[in-house]
Each structure stands twice: as structure tokens, then as C-alpha cells.
């Protein structure tokens, strides 16, 4: 039996996680789902985000974490989300941000003439370093001479382990190419490290072609000929941006799932989208990204059969047009969740 900490979080995170939890209960009734109240509401009431003791509890007493989203207009500086979400990513050392981009049906792709075979790649986003580490500061804040510094931190170990994870995945799944994306032409120190380590690690995978592309070019090319891409490995910030671009290519943020993974340790699963305050509380958010996230989590826990069942049910609901309005349907969040539940067989 497995134990999962469920953090619905803020905004639509609550609505979509409720549907994902219903699906999980339907396919794996014995799973223990323990709801955690972390989010803006609790932060505004008590100032609490997440403690080191709670992070310890997550790693010692849970098999996985399922998160909705964090972010609330009442916390404009986003400090609770940084502490909770980035806190889990950093302190649980979840160095792989695994973000698959896969087209479920041609009609969901905004590009002309692309088929489901043409859009099927994964992003390996480095998840514990880069500009996200919060190194830097301000000087003379609020004056005309204000200075802001935000450092881009890259360690050899950090770069090597995410690149290796991408190559291991490519090998395990029979992919023929891994694409590194960076901005080595402008950011020479970080880019230099990434490119040297990339070339070095690639030598251990002689059957896999390696290519390094500047991220501006890759963003353009993902729109022009996405069929070229199989496995993309990149830093924290570029991975964040490319994953929303990837979502747009396959029907939007309502469909893309992600895992924050440290192999062998408790890992965190969440949709790529945020708390969507513009549509929160209206029963219009698409729950499919959260439901596919639950499937990704089950696959990570070794339950391929249940994961495949959920994915097939989502695909069938999408093909039948029983979806929320972002995918052209007329259903609300709850009804779209039910459309999946009905198809679980
Ligand atoms: P967002 O992903 O919340 O929303 C972007 C756009 O996509 C909005 O128009 C929204 O309505 C739409 N959208 C998002 N999820 C959807 C869904 N399930 N169904 C239908 N439409 C959906 O990004 P944002 O507006 O930049 O950020 C809002 C808040 O969320 C911010 O506080 C941000 O920091 C936070 N955020 C959190 C996470 C996370 O917790 N992992 C991820 C991204 C953003
Ligand atoms: C994501 C989000 C987060 C990120 C934010 C909320 C800090 O955009 O998970 O993609 O940038 O990693
Ligand atoms: Mn993002």
C-alpha cells in the first residue's frame, strides 16, 4: 500500500486536484491519500509555509506527493509558493523536472498539418539550481540608483546528473537523439560547463546522437518542426519557459503533467500549469493535466497498468469532446473529471 501527500494548494489547484484524487480513488482504492493544507490561505492566517520537520515527514513517511498549484493574488510577492514549492524541490533534492509533451489528438495542435506522431517529446528540466536558487540581492532599493543581482548557479554535479538522467531515459525508451538547450553564446560560463559535461556524458551513450542548440533557436524550431525532438535537457529557467511552449503545442496547460523526481526518494507530481486566478472558483479549469499527473505518479510508483488505464480514459474523453472549454468542450471541471471516471472501465 502506498501513502500519498496531497497538497491541492491555491486557486484552480484545489479544483483540479479534487478530480485527480477521485480518479486515484477509483483505480487504486487502497491508496492512502492524506490532504495537506499548505497554501496561501494558511500562510495568510498563520504565516506558515512548510517547515523542515514537515519536509522530513514527507521523505520518511510518504511514497509520493501530489500537488495542485501554488500562487494567489493576495500574496503578490509569491513568497509562500516559493517557500513551499521551491522548498520541496530544493530541500528534497528533486533534481529532475520531467515534463512530457504529447499530442492526444490532431485537432488540439495549433500547428498546421502536424499529427500525433509529430508531437511527442520530453523535457528534462534541471530543478535545483540555475537562477532559481535565490542568490543575489538588491542595493539602493527604491532609489534611482537601484541595483538588482540574480545569480545563475550551476554546479558540475548538478549539471551532470540531469544530463545523465536525460541520456538514461533516452536509452531506456529507444530514442536516438538528446538535445541540450542553453544560451552558451551569451552566457559563456554556465553554457561552457553545460556543453563540456554534455559532450563528456554523451560519450557513454554512443548509440545516441547529441546536439546542442541555443534556446532561442529551439523555441522557434519547436514550432517549425517539433517532430525532430525526442528528449530535451536544459536548465531551470529555460525548462520552465519551454514547458509552457510545449503545452501550447499540444492543447494548452490544461493537458500537461510533470514530475519533480529524485530516483529512489519521495517525489512530487504536479500539473505544469499554475493556480490560474483568472478562472479560479468558476468550475471551468481543465482537470486533465492534474489527472494525467496522477497517472505519471502511479507510473513512477511502479503501477504502469493503472497509469495506462487513466491515460486511455483521458484520451477517450478528449476524443469524445467531453472536455472543458479550453479544449472546445462545454463541461465544467467536475463534469470533465466525471467524463474520465466513467471511462475507467
Ligand atoms: P497559470 O498556469 O496559472 O495560467 C496561465 C493561463 O492558462 C491562464 O489564462 C489560465 O486561465 C490558463 N490555465 C491554467 N491552468 C488551466 C487549466 N487547468 N484549465 C484551463 N486553463 C488553465 O500561469 P500564471 O497566470 O502565470 O500564474 C498564476 C499563478 O500560478 C502565479 O501565482 C504563478 O506563480 C503560479 N504558478 C504556480 C505553478 C505551480 O504551482 N506549479 C505553476 C505556474 C504558475
Ligand atoms: C512551474 C512554475 C514555477 C516555476 C513557479 C511557480 C515558481 O512556473 O512549475 O512551471 O517557475 O518552476
Ligand atoms: Mn512554469
Overview of the molecule:
With 345 residues, this protein is an alpha/beta fold. The chain has 2 domains: 1-101 and 256-345, Isopropylmalate Dehydrogenase; 120-249, 3-Layer(aba) Sandwich (Isopropylmalate Dehydrogenase), CATH 3.40.718. Helices cover 41% and strands 19% of the residues. The chain starts with a strand and ends with a helix. The protein is globular, with a radius of gyration of 20 Å. 45% of the residues are buried. α1 packs parallel to α11 (333-342), α5 (156-172) packs across α6 and α10 packs across α11. The protein is built from 11 helices and 12 strands. The structure holds nicotinamide-adenine-dinucleotide, 3-isopropylmalic acid and manganese (II) ion. Nicotinamide-adenine-dinucleotide is lined by residues 12, 16, 69-71, 78, 81, 85, 253-254, 270, 273-279, 285-286, 289, 326.
Main sheet summary: 10 strands, mixed
The helix fraction, in percent, is 40-55%
Order of helices and strands: EHEHHEHEEEEHEHEHEHEEHHH
Count of spatially separate domains: 2
Mind telling me which CATH architecture of the largest domain this is? 3-Layer(aba) Sandwich
Rg computed from alpha carbons, rounded to a whole number of angstroms: 20 Å
